[in-house]
């Protein structure tokens, strides 16, 4: 469906995504209607369908974009020396990237269940790629003799869960700044993998 001449798709599209993300994170996907999203953006409900076929497609787009941005940013992140340096880089990167996107992280974990099987599989595959990056670091650390852990897959899941948890409690201007949090978490991860 074509947009009307003079429409501001480069403005409205991102506003729809931002308001949907905010509303889904605050009230839950199931509780938010397309009409509420439209009202928050300041457009008629029918106008949303120029940008997305339905609410689930909007959620899927938000989750997929988040994972693709995460993977792209990690691909560009400079690595430390050896597996231990790469692991420290991963820990700090994960916290830094996700603290700036706490709503997207929340949606990625809490609203994944609202996707149909095909969309769920796409997001799971993207997650698997990211988790695979950490597991490869852990395996390299084992091979180098720098890390000691009984199961790299389990360690991967535990580390990601621990690092992602920062987004639920961290508040800017709180007792600890971001760099201090990164350093403390790096120390905990290092000890957890017997580095």
UniProtKB/TrEMBL annotation:
Residues 10-70 form the HTH tetR-type domain. It holds the Pfam family TetR_N. PROSITE patterns: HTH_TETR_2 (PS50977). Keywords: DNA-binding. It comes from the Bacteria. Residues 33-52 bind DNA. This is TetR family transcriptional regulator.
């Amino acid at each position: 469906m074509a947009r009307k001449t003079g429409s501001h798709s480069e403005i409205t599209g991102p506003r729809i995504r931002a308001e949907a993300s905010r509303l889904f994170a605050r009230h839950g996907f199931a509780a938010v209607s397309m009409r509420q999203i439209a009202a928050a953006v300041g457009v008629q409900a029918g106008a949303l369908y120029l940008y997305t076929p339905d609410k689930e497609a909007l959620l899927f787009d938000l989750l997929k974009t988040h994972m693709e941005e995460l993977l792209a940013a990690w691909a560009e992140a400079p690595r430390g020396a050896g597996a231990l340096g790469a692991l420290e880089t991963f820990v700090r990167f994960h916290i830094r990237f996700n603290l700036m996107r706490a709503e997207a992280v929340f949606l990625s974990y809490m609203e994944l269940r609202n996707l149909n099987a095909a969309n769920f599989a796409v997001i799971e595959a993207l997650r698997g790629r990211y988790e695979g990056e950490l597991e490869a670091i852990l395996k390299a650390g084992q091979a180098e003799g720098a890390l000691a852990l009984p199961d790299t897959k389990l360690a991967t899941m535990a580390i990601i869960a621990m690092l992602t948890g920062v987004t639920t409690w961290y508040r800017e201007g709180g007792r600890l700044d971001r760099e201090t949090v990164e350093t403390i978490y790096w120390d905990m991860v290092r000890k957890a993998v017997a580095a």
